[in-house]
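CHAIN AND CONFORMATION:

***
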Amino acid sequence: MNSCIAVRDGQKFIFTRIGDEKQKVKKQDQLKEILTDSEFTMKGSCAISLLLTKLDIVNTILMIESGRSVIQQKTGRLKSYDSVCKKLEKKGLEPDFNIALEKINDLIGVRAICAYVDDIYKVAALIERQKDIRIIKTKDYIREPKKSGYQSLHLILEAAISFQSETQWIKIELQLRTAAMDYWASLDHQLRYKRGRKEAQLIDEELQQCAAMISSLDQKMLKIRKKIDKI
């Protein structure tokens, strides 16, 4: 009798697991569709265009004040389906779009490369003053770098876009960094997936040393520019 109960319990457990797997696959398919071809992608593209235009305006204002271009480069992107899935898995979260929208700040991302460290904060200050932008959170990894050595100023913000005759607020992450910071971050991203377990600690230490050197270089270049400004 007990063996019959055990069999029924075992079958129930198997059916439950199969049901859970089907539900997970269904959520993954829905997530992929939303992130690749949906109203969200259209809104995201509009939000990116808006913020890139804002950065052009900010750069023009600062160029008039300083006589030089402050923003050297800018890009925008929608996070790929694979990247979203990896981030959700890393956080121990289900592959669900609503969860991703709430827990992942950079589903929609814009990055601007500035000439000098102080330019980063000038750009951020002008972005914060925009009436159709509201700052949700600021993460300053320049004044307080990550343990890895990563440096950048992140502004988690919402931008107002007109979509289908109504105003909607779309969450975007704006990353502001110097060319040196961007160079380090790009190489760190590439090397991160090639590190073996034995070499990981040594490589991490070397990357931290490189990050410190880059920070020192940024500060030296800023001091030189300020000396020139005084002449």
